[in-house]
Specification:
By secondary structure, the protein is an alpha/beta fold. The chain has one domain: TIM Barrel, CATH 3.20.20. The chain is built from 9 helices and 10 strands. The strands form 2 sheets. Strands 1, 2, 3, 6, 8, 9 and 10 form a 7-stranded mixed sheet that branches. Strands 4-5-7 form a 3-stranded parallel sheet. α7 runs parallel beside α8.
């Protein structure tokens, strides 16, 4: 009986330490894993919500940068589906052209309003991609991450916890053809794949085959399938901030 108990105990300890090692190895893998942050700017609630099933189909979560004075029904629905709600000012104003008081009203005061209604805003994207270092310094006192709008830049996951990051636009209007788009996206993803613990931000505004400030499902499907072929992850900004 005693021998049997010893065998059971040893077996239990072996399984316990094997599980701990597996968890540790998985955490190391996730820490070193490169990935994409896919985002959508402005506020197109009906279009975005219509594509929740599209995101579920590919098993990805995205970040929606909203323009709103307070949380909307869409915000709560997006969070229920696992997506992130981030901020883009109340009225989509160019912060470099307004007073400090207006910067506060448009970009900082809403943080508390959203918090009181159950949504923590930790990521901010500049309307029109217009920023200054002074604005970065100010907003990073209130947000963990602030985001630009015009450039591809490989960024470390560490920077994603606190700092300024760039983003690359993938709207239809930036590409002459599907082939042109696929070439650029392939270059970005292969560069990511060749590095360790790096991420890149890409964004559009809505999902539609037509329209300059939209991205087609065909383009998104290429991005997603190519990224998965290369073993890249999809993250939200908040997910990286919390890890």
């Amino acid at each position: 009986m005693r021998k049997k108990l010893i065998i059971i105990l040893v077996s239990f300890l072996f399984i316990f330490f094997a599980v701990l090692c597996s968890i540790k190895l998985y955490r190391v893998y996730r820490c070193n894993q490169c990935g994409i942050l896919l985002a959508f700017d402005d506020y197109d609630a009906y279009n975005w919500e219509d594509h929740f099933d599209f995101f579920d189909k590919y098993g990805i979560k995205v970040t929606f940068f909203v323009n709103a004075s307070e949380p909307t029904d869409f915000c709560y629905k997006a969070i229920e589906r696992g997506h992130e709600i981030a901020f883009h000012t109340i009225g989509h104003v160019r912060l470099t052209e307004v007073s400090e008081e207006e910067v506060y009203a448009q970009a900082i005061a809403p943080i508390e309003t959203f918090r009181q209604k159950g949504i923590e805003l930790t990521t901010f994207a500049y309307p029109y991609g217009s920023y200054t270092e002074e604005l970065n310094d100010l907003l990073l006192q209130h947000y963990k991450v602030v985001r630009g709008a015009y450039y591809y830049r490989l960024t470390s996951k560490e920077t994603m916890r606190h700092g300024f990051v760039e983003a690359y636009p993938i709207d239809n209007g930036y590409f002459d053809t599907q082939e042109d788009y696929e070439r650029v996206i392939t270059d970005i993803l292969e560069n990511l794949h060749a590095n360790k613990a790096g991420v890149a931000c890409v964004y559009s505004h809505a999902i539609s085959p037509g329209g300059e400030w939209c991205v087609s499902e065909e383009k998104l499907e290429f991005l997603i399938t190519k990224a998965k072929e290369l073993g890249l992850e999809f993250y939200t900004f908040k997910e990286l901030q919390n890890n």
